[in-house]
Amino acid sequence: MELVISTELHDRLTHHLENTFPSEGGGFLVGHIKGDTRQVTEVHLVENTFASEEQFHRYLAEAGAFQRIEDEADARGLSLLGYFHSHPDHPAIPSEFDRTHAWPYFAYLIVSVRGGKRAESRLWELAANRESFIEGQLSFSQAVFEEKSNNGNH
Amino acid sequence: MATIKIPTPLRSYTGGNAEVNVSGATVSAILSDLTTQFPDLRPHLYNGDELRNFVNIFIGDEDVRFRSGLDTEVEPGDKLRIIPSIAGGR
Predict the structure, then answer these.
(1) Which of A74, A120, B21, B41 is 20 to 30 A distant from B32 in Cα terms?
(2) Which overall architecture, per CATH, does domain A2-149 show?
(3) pLDDT (tens digit per residue) in B3-14
(4) Which of B44, B58, B81 sits opposite A103 (nearest CB)?
(5) Is B42 on the interface with A (CB under 8 A)?
């Protein structure tokens, strides 16, 4: 799987995860699917509803947020591509908790945030047998600047 | 006959369909019919014989946990939905 995201949207989500530090933060990725490539067009920041004393190492998006964002994406011909969350002061590698709670087909973007600053973003996908994650390719686009260039605004 | 809305990450197991017709008098029977029609869904909904903790089943806007859980009765024409709770952690 390849996930393409603009630097602007990636900055937006990582700033959110820096702001939620030392707690975990997260949200959803919405956009288009072309073959094995997912193009992110929207980032939805979603509150962590896990018990507050556990938020330093756990993230939970409540069902209502999933329902609302999926319905909005479906209605506009977009796809819910996956979700992102932070690992505060920890590598951007899926944990056993991530694996047991993961969904197939989704793009899992994990951001390591160290000392309140983003350190690393890595993309993962649950294997079909649910026994492991497979690392995907995270690609950054300059969509905003390309759009300005196409309009002649440099 | 009722319908059940399939969440995006599971639609590849239902031929890309976001909504599926299902039969059954209870939520448990509905899920049994669903996983009989689409057997590859089962490991993502169940851990052994138990529904996974982060799988939520709604009828309309109500989580069946606040009714009778998997024993909740389903009427013809009811609209069910599978809604994942999305969780992660380091």
Answers:
(1) A74
(2) 3-Layer(aba) Sandwich (3.40)
(3) 999 999 999 999
(4) B44
(5) no
